[in-house]
Amino acid sequence: MNALAPTPAAARSTHRSAAASVDPALLAKYDGLRVPRYTSYPTAPHFTPAVDADVYGGWLEALDPRRSGSLYLHIPFCHQMCWYCGCHTKIVARYAPIAEYLGHLRREIAMVADRIPGRLGVRHIHFGGGTPTMMAPEDVGPLFDLLRARFDVAADAELAIEIDPRTLTADMAAALGRAGVNRASLGVQDFDPTVQAAINRVQPRETTERALDWLRDAGITNVNLDLMYGLPHQSVDSVARSAEIALEMAPDRLSVFGYAHVPWMKTHQKKIDESVLADTLGRWEQFAAIADTLGAAGYSAIGLDHFARPGDELAVQQQEGRLGRNFQGYTTDDADALLGFGASSIGALPQGYVQNAVPFDQYASAVEAGRLPTAKGIALTDDDRMRRDLIMRLMCDLSVDVGAIAQAHGHDVGLFDADLADLADLVADGVATIDGRRVHVPESARPLMRIVAARFDTHLASGAGRHSRAV
């Protein structure tokens, strides 16, 4: 059997994932804890209006264009609301709002580029949403042309886009190929028709396969698929079968996300029947079944929730200790500056983080007035930068030498000794081990790594209730 071929159900039990070996008592103990996903540090709930358009403008003007950069463009439109969705998006039936938004996006790109003293070098461009492919095919090329005109985009840059296979057309796939897109992330979530109906996302297997054929015909061969667990009506067997179907499509990477049921924040989630959602143990049994299936097929576990072929750059960087994490999840992007464009997008500069206005009207009004649409952010302290490095390595490597981190930032090797003492209960529970000043999350506790990272977060107490559950 090919090492990356689908694994028969009878053989799945030969590969035991980290999730499968977690003690159910620990899951019950830590269920309900609110901890960040640590796609940044400090995390977004700690952003404030003190970092506004003027502050961001000053940061851009101080940016050395010789530093490496990456770009994120948010296209916040969908044709239909998926009831599990937690993203900032808007449902539209006409193209006019999208065309208008793209006009604002182009103006923002020009404003930001004008504030940087030179053409910033760019090696990564990521389009997220919403559904970026809600753009018309004829609008794709000019937008990429603008990015290449205003930034020094490397010839071998990774140009990635998120795709809803239900709305992708052959013309759009061809337009993406002509624009140089070389990586696509397709939302799948689950292949079971009952689950799809329960989340208002009916997407037959043939729809996903057709989208993949169009993309590969257009030369876009680097593909990752998104799967979810914890959705209504899912079971251990059903999610394992969805993972097997996904493997038959030979993706390079897979992301496996847990559904966060927060109907008090996302009112459309009230349409989901809570009685058919798994409990904490059931959710992790589902994750374990997916991880078992992918692991048995030869995919490497990457951090908290990603999987990749062993030769994929994501897996290579993890092996070499160079893996990164940002607002798009685990990434090979190590740029010094991430510029975010569009409503709600987040950027990261050497000085700190910035986020654009979330409401469309506020975003549009600022751009139309010639102002950067920055709504909030946070300036980094030296302590923030040091703890960010520590948490990043823990989230990416499951291990970090806190003494080495302290020394790298000009402090005594024992700076974090009090933090290490605070891990005593986690060590007793088997969630962490400590060897000298190296903190390690055992493979059996991989799903609980965020709990360990949170112990080094000095901002957490003021925003804990606004984060997702730890389990």
Q: What gross morphology would you assign?
A: globular
Span of the ends, CA to CA: 35 Å
- CATH topology descriptor of the domain at 9-22 and 39-339: Transcription Regulator spoIIAA
The number of helical segments is 16
Catalytic activity: coproporphyrinogen III + 2 S-adenosyl-L-methionine = protoporphyrinogen IX + 2 5'-deoxyadenosine + 2 L-methionine + 2 CO2
Protein name: Coproporphyrinogen-III oxidase
Cofactor: [4Fe-4S] cluster
Family: Belongs to the anaerobic coproporphyrinogen-III oxidase family.
Characterization of this structure:
S-adenosyl-L-methionine 2 binds at residues 84-86, 130-131, 189, 201, 226, 260. The chain has 471 residues and is α/β, with parallel strands linked by helices. The chain contains 16 helices and 19 strands. The chain has a domain at 9-22 and 39-339: 2-Layer Sandwich (Transcription Regulator spoIIAA). 35% of the residues lie in helices and 20% in strands. Helix 5 runs parallel beside helix 7 (205-217). The longest helix is centred in the N-terminal third of the chain and has 20 residues, at 96-115. The radius of gyration is 22 Å and the shape is globular. The model is unreliable at 1-15 (pLDDT under 50).
